[in-house]
Design goal:
single chain, 368 residues, alpha/beta, Rossmann fold, 2 domains, six-stranded parallel β-sheet, 14 helices, 12 strands, 14% strand
Length: 368
C-alpha cells in the first residue's frame, strides 16, 4: 500500500494541505540474518516494538493521524487523544484466522498477529473502506464497533495508457510469445483468493471452443506454485500458458494493452485494482460475479462464476463479441475512480473527523 500512501500525500500537498507520509525506520532489520524465519521475527521487532516509539515522537506535533493500512492498526495508539482515522483495504487475513474460508489454514504466529490487528482495528473511531463490500465485511467482523465508516474508492496509483506495438511485442517476447499472439492476461500473486489455478482451468475449458483454439494465457506475477505447474503438465498446456514473472510497470502496461481480455477470476478481493488497470488500457475485463468485482467493474465486464470453469468458459464465449463495447464502457467506468474524487472524499472525511474530535479542523498527517 506504499503507492496508495504516496498518491494520497502528493495529492493532498498539491491542494495545499500540509500532509506528510511517514515510514518507520529499519533498525534490527538491517542485521545480516538472511530471509528465513529469523529474519521475519527481526522485522517484527522493528515494526511492533521500535516503530510505535518512533511514531509517537515523529507525530508529536501532528494534529491528525491517518493510518493508511489496516494491518498497521496498532499504530492508532500513537495518536493518543488526537483525531485519527484508518483505511481498511480488506478483511481477508483477519477472516482467514477466524475460519471464514473453509480449507484455509493459518500458522499460529499469523493467528496471533491477525488477532492483534483485529483488536486494534475494532477500537478505531473512524474507518475508511475501499469498497462497500469491505465496509460490509468490517461491520460483520466487528458488530460491536462504534466506528464511523465511510467508503472512498481508490484511484489508480500508477499511470496506465496505450502502448506502442513495439512495447507490446517486447513484453510478449519476454514472456516467450511471438508478436501478434492472441492472449488472455491474468494479474495477481499466489494468494489462494487470487485463484490463479482457477484461471488456468477456465482457460483450459475455453480453448476447447474452435474460436479460442489458438489463444494463449499469460500470468503476470510471481513464479507458479507446484500445483499450477502440475496442472499445466497434466493438461498439456506448457506451451499455451506462459509466465511473466515480476514484471515492471512498463511491461505490465504493455501486456494489458496487447491482451484480448483480462481474466480476473478472484474468489474474493478488498477492491481489485487490476480491473481498473485493464480498463485504463482499453483491455476488456472478464471477472468474478461477486462483490467487490461487480462493484468496481460496473457494467463494463463479462461476469463469470470462478468455481465453475466450464460454465465460465461458456459465458465468455457467448459474450466475446462485446469486447469493443466493453472497452468503451471501461473508459467511462474509470470516471468513478478519479484522483480528484478520491481527494475530495478524503478531505471531507478529514473535516468530519475534525468536527467529531475537535472544534478546530486539524491538518492531516499520513502514517503508513
Amino acid at each position: 500500500m506504499l503507492g496508495y500512501a504516496r498518491m494520497l500525500e502528493e495529492g493532498l500537498r498539491a491542494r495545499g494541505v500540509c500532509a506528510e507520509a511517514i515510514y518507520p525506520p529499519m533498525v534490527f532489520g538491517r542485521l545480516p540474518v538472511g530471509r528465513g524465519e529469523a529474519a521475519k521475527w527481526i522485522r517484527y521487532i522493528d515494526k511492533y516494538l521500535i516503530a510505535p516509539m518512533w511514531l509517537r515522537w515523529k507525530t508529536r506535533r501532528a494534529e491528525m493521524i491517518h493510518v493508511c493500512d489496516h494491518s498497521n492498526s496498532m499504530y492508532l495508539g500513537c495518536a493518543g487523544g488526537r483525531p485519527s482515522l484508518i483505511t481498511c483495504h480488506d478483511l481477508i487475513a483477519i477472516n482467514s484466522t477466524q475460519g471464514k474460508y473453509p480449507g484455509m489454514s493459518v500458522r499460529s504466529s499469523g493467528r496471533v498477529l491477525q488477532r492483534w490487528i483485529a483488536r486494534n482495528l475494532a477500537r478505531a473511531r473512524y474507518v475508511i473502506c475501499d469498497s462497500y463490500q469491505t465496509q460490509s465485511d468490517f461491520h460483520a467482523c466487528f458488530p460491536d464497533s462504534a466506528a464511523t465508516t465511510r467508503v472512498i474508492y481508490v484511484a489508480l496509483n500508477r499511470t496506465f495508457n496505450t502502448a506502442s506495438a513495439e512495447s507490446i511485442g517486447a513484453a510478449l517476447a519476454a514472456s516467450g510469445a511471438p508478436a501478434g499472439t492472441h492472449y488472455l492476461l491474468h494479474v495477481g500473486n499466489n494468494g489462494w483468493y487470487k485463484n490463479r489455478l482457477g484461471a488456468m482451468q477456465i482457460f483450459s475449458a475455453l480453448i476447447q471452443f474452435p474460436e479460442f483454439s489458438a489463444m494463449k494465457l499469460i500470468l503476470a506475477g510471481p513464479s507458479w506454485t507446484s500445483d499450477m505447474r502440475a496442472f499445466c503438465r497434466t493438461a498439456r498446456l506448457e506451451d499455451r500458458i506462459l509466465e511473466a514473472n515480476d514484471v515492471t510497470d512498463e511491461t505490465l502496461n504493455a501486456l494489458y494493452c496487447g491482451a484480448d481480455a483480462l481474466l480476473f477470476p478472484s474468489l474474493i478481493e478488498g477492491f481489485g485494482w487490476p480491473v481498473l488497470e485493464a480498463q485504463a488500457c482499453g483491455c476488456p475485463v472478464i471477472t468474478t460475479n461477486r462483490a467487490p468485482m461487480t462493484e468496481v467493474a460496473g457494467d463494463a465486464a463479462i461476469f463469470i462464476d470462478p468455481a465453475q470453469p466450464a460454465a465460465a468458459a461458456e459465458a465468455i464465449r457467448k459474450q466475446w463479441q462485446r469486447r469493443r463495447e466493453l472497452r468503451e464502457l471501461g473508459f467511462r467506468n474509470l470516471e468513478r475512480f478519479s484522483l480528484d474524487q478520491m481527494l475530495d472524499s478524503y478531505c471531507a472525511a478529514y473535516e468530519e473527523v475534525a468536527r467529531m474530535e475537535s472544534a478546530d479542523p486539524p491538518v492531516p498527517v499520513n502514517a503508513n
